[in-house]
Protein 1
Amino acid sequence: MKNKDQIAYKDFSKALQSFFEDYIIKERGYSRHTIKSYSETFSLLLIFLHELKGIACDRIRFEYLDRTCICEFLTWLEEKRGCQPQTRNQRNAAIKSFFKYMIYYDPVHISRWQDICSIRFKKVVTDTIKYFSVEGICLLLNQIPRDSCRGKRDLALLSLLYYGGLRVQEVIDLMPCSIRFEKPYMVEVIGKGAKRRFVYLNEMVIDSLSSYMKQYQLLSPERAQNPLFFNSRGEKLTNAGITYILQKYASSANKISPELVCSKPTPHWLRHSRAEHLLQKGYPIVAIRDMLGHASIQTTEIYARINEKIKEDALLQLSETINPNSSKKGNWETNEKLKNYLRGLIR
């Protein structure tokens, strides 16, 4: 009987094809976004092997892929490709998923696959959640012209992003048939993991959507399956495209009031803003979780922690204002901004 080390490895290309076709598509039913992310990961791995190891795509064998090689690949992503630790971890997760599959596809070499799967994720410093105040949202949306075709689209887009608390990809994937114009107004959203949910909308958002869709003739039945938001070529707006639209108006608002609107926000700020504003109004955190489409209440609780910090800062400010020994001048009775904020805390 041959020694285990002498047993040939499976063919890499066939194993990778089986991983995509048989496992993540047929067996697991991953979303197209996850499949795209996995595909990009292995495309980058092929580039790495070709450029740094001199191994052409048609010559890749499992003998070349061990823990050291994968660690070098992850380091290359950061140092040469400029990837953030979050992106490195995302690529690492895709690699691990493949080699966990290999444990069953080629169990003879299980120790090699387990060695690769033991590569740890890099520690990531969690960024502070950024969001707009209610005044900031109003100032931002007021920069959008209402009398132009492009302005109607942008107002509908940003209003829906904010009021619905939607992820960018969720908005990108919307179609005209996703909008319900009868009461109760709502939008049907396909979120992470292809999970569907319904998000209620108010009359203001519905009016902006109706005006936009009439302008672009999106209310006809034959266009019901078309992209709801699209570019000049009729293609779906991209993440980068939506970011450009948001930052264009944010830049204008920033010139008016830099303390209210940052000039370079991301679309996710609108989602964060909606969640924080609802929490400040006293909405149950479970309801906010369902609206945002979070799988776990723990994810939504981060907004509650932010809200507690806001209250703590406001109470500290009140204490400093009424403290006769404080070096700051003024009285809280004459501070309208503080009074209005404190009223909001007890509503």
Protein 2
Amino acid sequence: MTKVRVPLILVNFKTYSEATGKKAIGLAKLAEEVTHECDICIAVAPQFTDIYRMAQEVSIPIFAQHMDYVEPGSFTGYVLPESIKEAGAVGTLINHSERRLKLADIDATVARAREVDLLSVVCANNAAVSAAVSVLKPDIIAVEPPELIGTGIPVSKAKPEVVTGTVELVNRINPDVMILCGAGIMRGEDVAAALRLGTEGVLVASGVVKAKDPYKVLLEFAEAITKA
């Protein structure tokens, strides 16, 4: 399994055309290049159909964008944890604001991820939900107020109390959980601010994927981490 280190930059490719198929591979290679140049950990979360090919062409950690907690069997259309693992992913996003789950389903999905040795990144919209999720013992929690996602307004500036509150509560309940900050991360200063607020990295998407020069943005993010 490709090792995930902190601080971590996790780039969610979503279903953007700029990160689909061949373009997804190209973007992952840019992330790998910055990883080697700056000696920091950049991971990517492409669409399911791109995971296998991507795992053959880059060495950085790859996450699925979602998975279901089903067992092998008659579950047409579901995303089997074993298939993600076999394709080359090291982990999965769970409960992204665009793919929300009930708490019981989050619990079952985290458990299945652990069972097949996949890292679980559970997204939460505020400190209270983050605290509740931390009891389920995921590997990583990414706090992201959904109203700020894609706005270019970083949560670290607009709602820093959400980040600090999450860090305080989660560390009190389960200090082993890694905490990421997401929503509106567009510049290196946003990454640096997230780290100052106590997180161990960021979850980003459009700020990188839809940038005119993704390499330049990733490099700026990485340099912000190395200087923090």
Protein 3
Amino acid sequence: MLTKPRYSPWDMLMWTRRELMFFAVYAAILTVAFASGLTFLRLPWAPVGVVGTAVAFIVGFQNNAAYGRIWEARKIWGGIVNTSRTWGQQVIDMVHTGGTIDDDQLRREHTALVHRHVAWMVALRHAMRAERPWEEFDKHGTNREWAREIHIPERIHDLEDELFDCLPEDEWDDVMARKNKAVAILNMQSRHLTRLKDKGLLWEFAYLELQGLLREMFTLQGKSERIKNFPYPRQYATLSYQFVRIFIVLLPFAAIAEFASLGEALQASWPTMAPHFIWAAIPFCALISWVFHTMERIGRVGENPFEGSANDVPISTIARGIEIDLRQMLGEPESHLPSPVPTSYGVQM
């Protein structure tokens, strides 16, 4: 997620520089052709303007829907933050010795429950970063350039290695054999709580409270998976994509003729500038095409809030912050705490 106050124009131009260059070249070719005498390359301005208005509505709808998905995803992971801290606090306070184990054994129980929760977050964020066929991130060269610069943690570190640091070897083998690893870890947490209750280390009310937190984790995971696995409806996404391109193709045919007519109207008052006024259609067409294309592309990258773009939910940063909080609750020394996920170019991952 972007932490700088706002994008600079240079950021947006660099992100869409290839498309902007194409729009300018396309408009220039048609302008040269029109100025060379191919004046049949014209369309009335009114129909093209109507198409542009319709496209603006469709793209606006797409952007609103994409923002809604991003905001919902951020609320879900905000819930994970709150539930995780509550889990750590209640595990430490509610799992207590009943006279059957010593303090070192009790500490190992606390550590296992907390570290297993960290493993759940690791498994969940890796699942959220997994690629889906409809996602757009790797389909654009500028996005791939961005990924090389910011170093998305889930694309650098393997899930197997990160889970091995959080789970005992026998549990690691069991989790890695499951398709949904986050669900497998929550199941382990539930079985662990039941064992603690049977040993008398967890009284009935505390057991129900902690099971309620596990139920909330299942709910939050399911909500996050729903956003990840159910894309923005493709009929709307495809329509927006195709309609913007149709408008961009048609725009110069109407704009160039309009600028030529304006030049003729200026002949009497500005005889020197009037013959060259048609060339102003090139930057005009490039600018309008760039605006519509960029609006549509922002909507596309916002549809999937876990891909790793600058405007996505920073699940790596959130999960690392929770891990640091939980380890500090356990009283682990500073040397054992992981470093926060670095911010690159004002963007949290």
